[in-house]
Design brief:
single chain; elongated; Alpha/beta knot; 6 helices; Ribosomal Protein L25, Chain P; 12 strands; alpha/beta; seven-stranded parallel beta sheet; 2 domains; 235 residues
Length: 235
Amino acid sequence: MNSFYHKNIKEGINLLPEAEARHCIQVLKHKVGDELLILDGVGGMYKSKIINISKKVCEFEILASETIIPKSFKIHLAIAPTKNINRMEWLVEKLTEMGVDEISLIQTKNSERKKIRMDRLEKKVLSALKQSKNPFLPKLNDLIAIDSFLSEHHSQKKLIAHVNPGHNYIRYIGDSIDPGEDTLILIGPEGDFTETEIDLALKNEFQLISLGPNTLRTETAGLVACYAINLVNKY
């Protein structure tokens, strides 16, 4: 059963948003009577049936609905975008599939990308949401300078991944997380965070953590960090 996104769904009869309707009718060639799964991005899953279609309109009725309870912990990944945008698009897809709750893009001194098209990333997130049938749409935040981000109030446990071997007190990420707690994890660019950025993070109560003995690419590090948090929570 193909999945579609509709954030303002109501009980009874609904219309798919225009872009979703075009994809449903013109690309997937759905017909009247076909069943669909509608996701509202906030935990609602609606088994539905098409009752009327035209070139740009897809009308459906809800047959059954289910509200998914959110998991007991939240993951917020803050990451410096990669120079190659395809790698960042791949990452947000995988993070959505994994159930990450929030993604923030941060600009650091060593960042290789200073601008990013949020609309492209948002499309990748929506596509991954539907493909994975994840009932919760991640929040995607636009690019922000790291000093501004660090100065904001964050109530989660705050972790920052660092590869500098001079910090011999760094703990492995799996030993830094308790099941059921919300976690914010910072991942730097290929050139890593500067010492000034690390010091600023520490002053704002971030804890240094390690993702293992090898130096990982930015997108790999982001994926490993979030997977480790899921693993600790047996999710």
